[in-house]
Amino acid sequence: MSLLIKNAKQIVLVCDRLQPHLTCQDILTAFKVIDNASISINDCGTIEEIGDIVRDEKEFNSIIDASGLCVIPGLVDGHTHPVWAGDRVHEFAMKLKGASYMDIHNAGGGIGFTVRKTREATEEELLHSFVGRLQLMARHGTTTVECKSGYGLNTDTELKMLRVLERAKSLQSLDISVTYCGAHSLPFGMSEREATDDVLERQIPAIMVAANQGKVAVDNIDVFCEKGIFETACTREILKKGKEQGWKINFHAEELNYLGGVEMGVNAGATAISHLEEISDEGIRMMAEKKTAAVILPTTAWLLKLKAPPVRKMLDSGVVVALGTDFNPNAHCLSMLRIMNMACVEYRMTMEEAMAGATLNSAASMGLSDKTGSVEVGKWADLVLLKVPSWEHCIYQMDASDTITHVIKKGKVIYRA
């Protein structure tokens, strides 16, 4: 269905030359915002024209008068764990009393608690809750999201989660980049070596059988590379195996301890690496050189009271910085608008850097920046319309979700206030 969005007060293009990503140096000259403009969208759901559109309005099936509104690209959430059962509100109380992430983990909580609940849940229960979460993400302006498995830690439950991710694609409108994360933690009673062998010899072969049957589809491979869990040698083996299946490398590293995971990951050809609180200067240099996306997750460091990742140093060194909510039972945040505000306040990102990080660069972290992440001719018409004085207010207002009037995915209005 063709759509005309007319008379927008401002349109944040992000860029206008189909750049695959923007570093902070690029943003100084390439970040684009235009005033008093319109957008035409064709029947295929892609952007056809931007600017002063002189066409008979009768040519369009639908028209949105955006007078007084600002338009930004649909937000792209670069890191989530959204398929799970059983909340962890009881652990929040433990954290308030000073318990660390590993204290809770060693007491049988954290990922282990969610794994037990997710194993117990039916596929239908997981699907119902997951689709509801995606709909809430859309309400907050997200149109594309990276979604991980990883609360199974065995073949049957990981496959169940991956089937949920695949089935959800046809039940709602957001695009999902699927990440297999069977190496999210060590299953109870297993050593690192045993868990690694289980992933390599049982889980991945079973996933490929299911993929060949059309039951699942995986885009990325993830490992929680951390001291005492999956250290660099085993992480390398798993990432290599995933890459051999055609999956992009997109994994957790240097969150709690420095292990050299970034250096290993860049050498392995990683598309993106997340967390990075303990990244080294050499890791920063290598990520900048190879344009490996750094997916920064402000909620995690904030909630766990971790040392802040050196985001400003990454930006100034030329690293491509993306953003994500890290939505999971430990970090219950669905709003990329809130994440942009936190990134600016906590990590000294500029508003332009945060906007690029929540759109184009997050899309780049999934290999999707040729399709989404900016408002450009030929890209998906993924758009958010907001009733704000200027586009900066969607970051300045801490969580401006209540200013959203429309969310559009591939030319279709999926949310209207």
Task: Give an overview of the whole structure.
The chain has 417 residues and is of the alpha/beta class. Helices cover 37% and strands 22% of the residues. The protein has 16 helices and 16 strands. It has helices at residues 24-30, 89-96, 101-106, 111-120, 123-139, 155-168, 192-212, 232-244, 261-267, 281-290, 298-304, 311-316, 336-347, 351-357, 360-365, 393-396, and strands spanning 3-14, 32-41, 47-51, 62-65, 70-73, 75-77, 142-148, 175-183, 220-223, 248-253, 272-275, 293-296, 321-323, 383-386, 404-409, 412-416. α7 links the parallel β8 (175-183) and β9. α7 (192-212) runs parallel beside α8 (232-244).
Keywords for this entry:
alpha/beta; 22% strand; 16 helices; 8-stranded parallel β-sheet; 417 residues; 8-stranded mixed β-sheet
